[in-house]
C-alpha cells in the first residue's frame, strides 16, 4: 500500500511559496539621530515660562541643575527675570522617613488641593541619591494619579551633590515654577537628617509625616526635626493601626509641650490620617489653610520669607566660596598632603588651615 505521505493530496508536505525577505531595517523609522533641540535665548526661556509652557519650564530647570558654567550663566539670568513673577504660591515642605508614606500621601494631598483649581509643582531634595539610581521622585509611578494630572508638574531631586547645592537648585526651581503659574509647591524630602533644615528654609509650612510605634517619635525630638514642624501628621491610621496612631498622637502632643513656643505663635497640631485609604486628608488641609490665614494676618508669613531670602544670600555666598576654594587646582594639589600632616601630628589643624588659606589668597592675587 502506498504511503500516505507520497499521496499528492497530502497537503502537509506541500512546499508553500515563501514570502520575500523583509528589510532588516524598519522602513518606517525615520531617523536614529536624536533631534537637536534649538537653543533658546534668555528671553525665549522667560517668555515660555511665563506663558506656562511646561516643556520650556523643564528645559530651564535642567539648566538650573546643570554643572556647566555656560548653563549656569543663562540659568541665573532666567531666574532673575522670572523673580518679579514669582512668590505667589503656598510652599509646603513634606518630610518623613522612607516608608512613612510620602509618595502615597503627596498623591492624595495633590489631588485634594487641585480640586479647587490652580497648579501644583512637586519638587524634591534628596542629596543622597543619584538620579540614575532612582532618586526619591525619580520614579514617577510613585505618584500615579498626580503624574498624569494636567495641572501638576513633578520634578525629581537634582542629582546628588552637596546638600547646599542640591537645595539651592530646588529653591531656584521654585522661582521658575511660580513664574510659570504654579500656585502650590510641595517640596518633598527624606526625613533622615539635615535636608529638613534646607527644606524648612524654603517653605512656608513644614509638614512632618510620622508613623506610630517606630521609635521615630524620640529620634525626631532628638534631631530637632519636630521643632521645625508646623504640623505633625501620623500616617497609616487604618485597620488595626488606628489605636497605635491615636496613642502616638497623644505622645507627640505632650512632647510638643517641651518645645519653646514658635516665632509664629502657631502651635503645631498633631493629626492622624491614612494616605492609602484617603481618610483625614481634608482635615490636614483645613489645618494648613488655617495656618496660612493665621500667619498672613500676624505678619509672620512675610517675615519668614524675608528671613529665608537672607539665609539664601549667605548660603549662596558660602557655597561659592567653598567651591572656589576646594576646586582651585593648587589647593586640590595641597589638600591631601596637609591632611596627612595633620593626621601624623606634624601640623596642627589650625596651622594647616591657615597655610591652605594663605596659599589660596596668594593665588587669587596672581
Ligand atoms: P515613602 O517612602 O515615604 O514615599 O512611602 P510610600 O508612599 O512609598 O509608602 C510606603 C509603603 O507604605 C507602601 O507600601 C504604601 O502602600 C504603604 N502606605 C502608604 N500610606 C499608607 C497608609 O495610609 N496606610 C497603610 N496601611 N499603608 C500605607
Q: Please mark out the parts with pLDDT under 50 across 5 or more consecutive residues, or reply none.
A: 130-137
CATH class of the largest domain: Alpha Beta
Largest sheet: 7 strands, parallel
- Level of helix content? 40-55%
**Could you tell me the radius of gyration in angstroms?**
28 Å
Which ligands does the model contain, each kind named once?
A: guanosine-5'-diphosphate
Q: How confident overall, as mean pLDDT? A: 86
**How far from one another are the termini?**
107 Å
Write up what this structure looks like.
The protein is of the alpha/beta class and 366 residues long. It has three domains: 39-85, Single alpha-helices involved in coiled-coils or other helix-helix interfaces; 87-298, 3-Layer(aba) Sandwich (Rossmann fold), CATH 3.40.50; 328-365, no CATH class. The protein contains 14 helices and seven strands. It has a seven-stranded parallel β-sheet with strand order 3-2-4-1-5-6-7, with helices on both faces. Helix 2 (54-65) runs antiparallel to helix 6 (163-179). It starts with 41 loop residues before the first helix and ends with a helix. Mean pLDDT is 86; it is low at 130-137. Residues 96, 98-104, 235-236, 238, 274-277 line the site of guanosine-5'-diphosphate (GDP). The site of guanosine-5'-diphosphate has 15 residues, from helix 4.
Amino acid at each position: 500500500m502506498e504511503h500516505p505521505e507520497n499521496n499528492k493530496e497530502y497537503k502537509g508536505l506541500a512546499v508553500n511559496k515563501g514570502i520575500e525577505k523583509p528589510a532588516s531595517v524598519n522602513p518606517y523609522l525615520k531617523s536614529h539621530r536624536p533631534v537637536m533641540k534649538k537653543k533658546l535665548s534668555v528671553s525665549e526661556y522667560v517668555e515660555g515660562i511665563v506663558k506656562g509652557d511646561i516643556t520650556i519650564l523643564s528645559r530651564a530647570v535642567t539648566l538650573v541643575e546643570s554643572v556647566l558654567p555656560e548653563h549656569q550663566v543663562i540659568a541665573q539670568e532666567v531666574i532673575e527675570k522670572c523673580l518679579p513673577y514669582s512668590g505667589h504660591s503656598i510652599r509646603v515642605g513634606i518630610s518623613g522617613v522612607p516608608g512613612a508614606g510620602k509618595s502615597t500621601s503627596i498623591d492624595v494631598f495633590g489631588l485634594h488641593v487641585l480640586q479647587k483649581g490652580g497648579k501644583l509643582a512637586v519638587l524634591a531634595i534628596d542629596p543622597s541619591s543619584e538620579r540614575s539610581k532612582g532618586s526619591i521622585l525619580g520614579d514617577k509611578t510613585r505618584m500615579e494619579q498626580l503624574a498624569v494630572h494636567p495641572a501638576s508638574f513633578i520634578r525629581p531631586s537634582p542629582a546628588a551633590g552637596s546638600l547646599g547645592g542640591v537645595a539651592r537648585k530646588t529653591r531656584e526651581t521654585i522661582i521658575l515654577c511660580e513664574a510659570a503659574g504654579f500656585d502650590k509647591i510641595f517640596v518633598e524630602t527624606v526625613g533622615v537628617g539635615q535636608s529638613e533644615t534646607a527644606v524648612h528654609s524654603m517653605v512656608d509650612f513644614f509638614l512632618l509625616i510620622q508613623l506610630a510605634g517606630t521609635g521615630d517619635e524620640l529620634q525626631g525630638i532628638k534631631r530637632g526635626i519636630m521643632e521645625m514642624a508646623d504640623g505633625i501628621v501620623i500616617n497609616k491610621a487604618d485597620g488595626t493601626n488606628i489605636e497605635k496612631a491615636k496613642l502616638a498622637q497623644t505622645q507627640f502632643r505632650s512632647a510638643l509641650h517641651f518645645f519653646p513656643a514658635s516665632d509664629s505663635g502657631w502651635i503645631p497640631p498633631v493629626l492622624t490620617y491614612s494616605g492609602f485609604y484617603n481618610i483625614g486628608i481634608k482635615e490636614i488641609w483645613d489645618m494648613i489653610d488655617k495656618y496660612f490665614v493665621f500667619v498672613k494676618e500676624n505678619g509672620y508669613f512675610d517675615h519668614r520669607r524675608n528671613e529665608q531670602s537672607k539665609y539664601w544670600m549667605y548660603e549662596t555666598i558660602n557655597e561659592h566660596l567653598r567651591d572656589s576654594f576646594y576646586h582651585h587646582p593648587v589647593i586640590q594639589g595641597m589638600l591631601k598632603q596637609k591632611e596627612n600632616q595633620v593626621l601624623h601630628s606634624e601640623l596642627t589643624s589650625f596651622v594647616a588651615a591657615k597655610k591652605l588659606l594663605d596659599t589660596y589668597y596668594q593665588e587669587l592675587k596672581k
